[in-house]
Amino acid sequence: MDFNELGLTGPILKGIASENYDKPTPIQNAVIPKFLNNHDIVGIAQTGTGKTAAFVLPILERLIKKSKKNSPKSFPFLILVPTRELAMQIIDKIRSYGKIIRPKAVLIVGGAKPGPQIKSLKDGADIVVATPGRLLDHVKSKAAYLNSTNTVILDEADQMLDLGFMPSIKLIMSNISKTKQAVLLSATMPKAVRSLANEFLNSPEEVNVAPSAKPIELIDQRVFIVKREAKLKFLQDIFNNHNIDRSIVFVRTKIGANKLASKLKKSGIDVDAIHGDKSQSQRTRTLKNFRIGKVNILIATDIAARGIDVDNISHIINYDMPNESEIYIHRIGRTARAGKRGIAISLCDVSEKRKLKSIEKLIGYSLYAKVLNSSETLLISNVKKNTNKLDKINIKNELNVNKEVKKTKKRNLAKLFSKKAKKRFAAKRLKITQQDKHQSLEQLVRKSNKRRDKKSKDNDLQNNNKKNRNLSLKKRKPNKRKALINLDDSFHGTNN
Known about the structure:
Helix content is 45%, strand content 12%.
């Protein structure tokens, strides 16, 4: 199916052609006709599937036929997103696809001065792309009105849930007309997101074009079992010994991103970090440098990475294994786009093996891992999936063995704390004689307590004697020893 078969007209088709798009993606095929027929939609799709165009194109088509003038501080189309980066990317897409009709699109996000945003909204707008918190601020201050909004897009709904935006979203949605059209798009569908859809969408049609759990075949997945403290060394090996065109290194926390970026920079590796604590200008500059190739290595948290839609990423590196297996799919899906091959490298600590097992369960097959010693150089070029040249470890089997060991330990502990076991343990601890064996457990414990009290008194006596000795030593003159370090010499060095 071509774009002209989806219900789009001339000006929009020209905008699409100028972006060199030939065929619509599956989510565009599914969403655009339903959108133009005024259906509420729940779409499940991850980043890189073309979902932005799936709602931007029909919005632009609607604007061509719109005759009503915008009311002050109002707008018919609202797009809510979790991050500033994603909002900026959507604005760029609106301007690219709509270069012929030139819609008035306003960006409303946190981390930027509210004054220019308020000014842009003064005479109304066609489309507002906003983060929930900042939009709600403008609504409360009466700088923005929702009474004319008839279409709402909730993009990356699961991520907005993770960021704690759900109360703000519900408040915004409750202030928009119940006759609105709503489109909810999400990479995953947790219960809270499903509940949101049920509350604010009217008989939505569901579209699921998310890829199957199996990652793209063009992605070469490699897993290395590495001690936590050795991960930095092996990451340095990757960047120093291999040709990395463009890479994203994933970590779990903002603090972790900053620390890792700092350590890599000190070792001479040019990297930058992106996360939620950075200012808007810093994040914008970092993404720009990454896109144009000024910086080829980006350290990112999962939340910040949702707003990164950059082509030609050759390597995805999981420095920290993700807490949820679905996140692994989203991470590695950022490489191997447009028919190109990509490499996904995971540095897995022993404590993270359970997360690895969860990922294996999701993708449907085992990821064999090579164990790396601290003295070993990481030669990723020699690592191939499912080859016999590696030291393979079946994580699944290993974890099953560990489970059995734990069960055995529990059974042994249960036996240990039976009454008879307690008595045997007490008897052994007390080194009882043959004639003591018929004593009750209570008698043995009483005997044990007496010995413990006696031992405590002996220890107190020893401590007092020690204190007295230390006091007498303080009165003596200290021996003069030669300094181990010559302070003068410590300043002698080269001035190079």
